[in-house]
Amino acid sequence: MSISPLKCCINPSILSADFVNLETELARIADADAVHVDVMDNRFVPNLTIGLPVVERMQKVSPVPLDVHLMIADVDLWAPSYADARVDSVTFHVEASDAPIKLARELRARGTKAGMALRPATPVEPYLDMLPELDMLLIMTVEPGFGGQSFLDIVLPKIRRARAAVEGSGVDVAIQVDGGITEETITRAAEAGANVFVAGSAVYGRPSPADAIESLRAKGQLAFATTTLHPNNTPPQA
Ligand code: DX5
Ligand code: ZN
């Protein structure tokens, strides 16, 4: 079984950007791996952001791929339309889906990567058999709904168990973390096994989003290089 080295991705969250100037805000993160787009409906979470028309327009002007995070009810109904917008990935919350396997397959059939998200208190174990159906598992490190919250360390063991399951299954599933990722917490999340990092305030809240992305990426990569969790991550020679 060959396992590729973990790729560290920094996906800034548009939730912390200026919603009146989205095109300019996207240009400021042109060095990111993707832009994380938080869609909220004021039902699944107590907040409201943007919907499909804005996402379709962002897809047309963005210099980086769109990583869409749907925090919406009735997600089985709505998620396929986001895939049709030709974004790179669509992530739905398992708590909002009646038929997550069917939905993941539908997203892939429409040419989009399928992501599945877990709220902090949702266990990963019931869904491990679903890993081959997914391109990404999003483990929330805050309660979804708002930017600028503190990272929940209580979620770290779940990230470790998810990483062990991914490595054990041999499938290529990215593990994304979202919420409270900073230059301090990214190291703990990466050491636990996450490899895709969403950062809102830690990127857009800084004078230079480009510098913030570079610095977060360096911290994430260093954590991978020093952890023995992943078979291909050998500690640096002294
Ligand atoms: C929260 C959103 C996050 C949020 C992260 O529900 O899903 O993507 O923007 O913001 P920070 O990085 O500020 O915690
Ligand atoms: Zn998000």
From TrEMBL:
Belongs to the ribulose-phosphate 3-epimerase family. Catalyzes the reversible epimerization of D-ribulose 5-phosphate to D-xylulose 5-phosphate. The keyword Metal-binding applies. One of its GO terms (cellular component) is cytoplasm. Keywords: Carbohydrate metabolism, Cobalt, Isomerase, Manganese, Metal-binding, Zinc. One of its GO terms (molecular function) is metal ion binding. A divalent metal cation binds at H36, D38, H69, D178. It catalyses: D-ribulose 5-phosphate = D-xylulose 5-phosphate. Its cofactor is Fe(2+); Mn(2+); Co(2+); Zn(2+). This is Ribulose-phosphate 3-epimerase. It holds the Pfam family Ribul_P_3_epim. Its EC number is 5.1.3.1. Pathway: Carbohydrate degradation. It comes from the Bacteria. Substrate binds at S13, H69, G145, F146, G147, G148, D178, G179, G180, G200, S201. Binds 1 divalent metal cation per subunit. GO terms for biological process: pentose catabolic process; pentose-phosphate shunt. SUPFAM superfamilies: Ribulose-phoshate binding barrel.
